Amino acid sequence: MNRNSVMNVVVEAGGSQVVAHAGLHALGRFADRVGLGASLSAAIPWVGERAPVHDRGVVLTHAMLMLAAGGEACSDIEFLVSQPRLFGAVASDSTLYRTVRAISPSVLAELTGRAAVTRAQVWRRMAATTGTAMVVLDIDASLVQVHSENKAGTGPNYKGGFGFSPMFCFADATGEALAGLLRPGNAGANSVVDHFTVLDAAVAQLPAEIAAGHHGGDEPSTVRRMLQVRTDSAGCSTRFAAGCRSRNIGFAVVARSNASIHKGISRIQDDHERWLPARRRSGDSAQRSHVAEITDLVDLTGWPAGTRLIVRREHLHQGAQRSLFPSLCYRYWGHYTDADGTPVELDSHMRDHAHVEDHIKRLKDSGLERFPFTDLDANRAWMQLVCLGADLVRWFQHLCCTGELATAEPKRLRWSLWHTPARIIRRAGRHIIRILDGWPTTSDLLNAHQRITALC
Q1: Chain centroid to CA 337: how far?
Q2: Which of 321, 435, 455, 333 is closest to 20 using CA atoms?
Q3: In total, how many domains does the chain have?
Q4: 3-state DSSP assignment of residue 365
Q5: Enclosing domain of residue 229
Q6: Is residue 117 domain-resident?
Q7: Is residue 1 one of the residues assigned to a domain?
Q8: pLDDT for 47-96, tens place per residue?
Q9: Where are the alpha helices (DSSP H) in 3-151?
Q10: Lower CB density within 10 Å: C or N end of the chain?
Q11: Cα gap 339→344, rounded to integer Å
Q12: For the whole model, what pTM was predicted?
């Protein structure tokens, strides 16, 4: 019996016709096809009398490919430098470092504006964003630990750590990080100003036909497509709800416990006619969770007209989180909203806000966990690069992937797609990539290339 885990072979250097990231090449080709690099190039001014050796838009696109492949620092770009037959002339890590350091706040604003143009073109091609359905945005913040006190803009956080507390706004239908705000670790979770900063930045990233009517002070008659924003209890304030209403944006925010809610729930504890079975993910009715509307039983003074309060109860279980109402049998949870629909439908819709945790996890697995710079502006540019790189991957998944790869996490994509090994040959004046025999996602990669070619 052979007890070795690998074959006994001789290892030598000199593999001139081997490439290790054939799938990553497909992602780069997709970025070129949608014009991302060219769009970013126009936003970065030249410094000096002559054009730089490496186009800055291409430098940033290569950085996004590096982040998608699992890189987390400028030095990781060197793994693409060694494969010019796939990626062309890739800038060195020092060039990438200087490029990001040179992105001032004004240049960063121009970059995000250019990204919005590309995003609008991509959204018009995706089934998830076309049509007339309401566009749902999700706001949430997270903690990023930094093990250095030398980075500007950091601070201690409530969990005893130290670092940043960035806030993001995601598009629920696609998982894109439309906007992000880099904040110190001790930034207030309930800051209405921060919520509106990321909300307005996210609206600016939407195609013009969707963003129309959703800026502060716009007339409701100018709205062409409905928007809704969902937040956790950090956004539970009448000021935030009123600000959303002034932007003609619907809201759904997790409720905080107060005396009025206590009184309302206590009046319906045993009202079995009011409590309706909640809906599972599958669409079936849940047996141990119930939903009720108590709008008529609570004080909604200060909330916009049409605000409703939906409450959900479920049997207590080990590790259950805080409850809106003290009970030995149930955990109560609820949210304010101005949306139409039955209490069961609204509860199911609000629970989808949990998708935001997956979106943040995806960012942290794609370079957000490490900020390579000491300068705050450079780290803001880095975070924007991380977000845009993750969005590029989501666009690729929506437009070029099917089956499990269309929703796969970054780790799965790296193992099965980005790091596909292949042999590259030259025939009739063209480079040809031949994927390794037996590779499990060969057909997926070939189909992706066909879809890229078909993009117009």
Answers
A1: 23
A2: 435
A3: 2
A4: helix
A5: 133-360
A6: no
A7: no
A8: 766 667 788 899 999 999 999 999 999 999 999 998 888 899 999 999 99
A9: 22-33, 36-41, 56-68, 78-81, 84-87, 93-101, 105-123
A10: N
A11: 12
A12: 0.93
